[in-house]
Amino acid sequence: MRVYLDNAATTQIAPQVIDVMLTVIKDNFGNPSSTHFFGRNAKALIENARRSVAKHMNCLSSEIIFTSGGTEADNMAIHAAVNNLGVKRIITSSIEHHAVGHTIESLTKENLVESVFVKIDSKGHVNLNHLEELLQENIPTLVSLMHANNEIATLLPLKKVAQLCRKYKAYFHSDTVQTIGHYPIDLQDLDIDFIACSAHKFHGPKGIGFIYVNKKTKISPFVCGGAQERGLRGGTENIVGIVGLAKAMELAYKDLEEHQNHVQALKSHMMDELKILFPSVLFHGETETSKSLYTVLNVCFPKTEKGGMLLFTLDLKGVAVSGGSACTSGANKGSHVLEGIGADITRPNARFSFSHYTTKEEIDYTLKQIKSVFDVNIR
Ligand SMILES: Cc1ncc(COP(=O)(O)O)c(C=O)c1O
Prior knowledge:
Elements: E1 3-4, H1 15-27, H2 37-57, E2 64-67, H3 70-84, E3 89-92, H4 98-109, E4 114-117, H5 128-136, E5 141-144, H6 158-167, E6 171-175, E7 194-198, E8 209-213, H7 239-254, H8 256-277, E9 282-284, E10 296-300, H9 310-316, E11 319-320, H10 336-340, E12 349-353, H11 360-374
Parallel strand pairs: 1-11, 3-4, 3-5, 5-6, 6-7
Antiparallel strand pairs: 2-8, 7-8, 9-10, 10-12
Bound molecules: pyridoxal-5'-phosphate.
C-alpha cells in the first residue's frame, strides 16, 4: 500500500485538470503574443483563465498576474514594495516560508530595507498588539505575514491584520499559498496589496501560480522582457499551466465545503487515535479547527530510541510524510519554523498533510505503521 500524506509539499493533479491540459498541449501551441489565429486562440485561453481566477478571488482580472509559482509571486511582492513603493521597513515573522524569509533577508543584507520580526507565541500566532506597536512608528512599511503556516498549520486572522495595516498606512502582503483553493478568499472584502498563489497546492500543475496586485498599488515588472501580463511579467506565458491552474481552482471551489469537512474529519480522527496511542503526544502549532489549516497536522511523538527512525520506517512501509525536525546536524538544517516557536526538538516529529483524495483507510493504515515503529506501550 502507498499512502501519500505530504499534500502541503505538493498535491496530485486532478484528472480533470490533466484532461484540459492535454487538450491545450495538443491543440493550442500558438504564442499568445502573435496576432494571427493561433496566437489569438492561445491569448483567449489565458484571458478566460484569468477571468475565472478573478471571479473566484472576487477581484478584477487586471489584478491577477500569472507567475511561475508561489516563490516568484512572493519575491515579486517584496521586491516591488522596496523598489517601487518606497518601503523602508518590512515587518515579518521568523516562521515565514523561505520564499518570503530569504527574500527579505537578502534585501536586508543589501541594506535596501530594514526588517523587524513581530513577536509570535508558542503556537505560531502573531502578537497583534506587538504588530500594532510596531506599526505606530512612522516608517514606510510592508507587512509580510503568511495566511497559514505550511509546517504547523497556524492561521493568521488575515482581515484583522489587513485592517491594522490600512489603519497605519502600511502595505500588506500575505503568502496565501497554502490557503488558496482551501478557503474562500474575497479580495473585495479583504483590503490587501498582494497575495501569492501556487497551483500545485490544490491539485493543479507545478511551475504556475499568480500574484494578486491591488489596482491601487502601482508597481513595475519584476521579470523584465516583453509586454506580457500587462507589462508586469515578461516571458511567453505558460498557457498549459495557466489553463490547468484555472481548472484546478474551479474544482477546488466547486466542492470546497465537502472537501473541508472530509479532510477535517480525517485530521480529527488521526489526532484522537494518536492521543489514545500516546497519551503524551503533542501537536506543534495550532490544532483548534477555526484557527488551524485543516490539511496539516504536525505531530510531536514521545522521545524513544525508535522514534528517530520514524520517517524512514514509514517510507519503507509506503507512507510518505514530511519531517520538520529542527536537528541541525549534517545537510539537514532542520525546521526554522519549529525553532521559531521554541518547540521541543529533541522529540521525533512528522508533518502529516491531507487532501480530499485521502481516505480513512489510509489514515488507519498509517496509524498501524506508526504503532509498529514505536512498539506501542509507550506512555
Ligand atoms: C507557504 C508557501 N509559500 C510559498 C511556497 C512556494 O511555492 P512554489 O512551490 O509554487 O514556488 C510554498 C510551497 O512550498 C509554500 O508552502
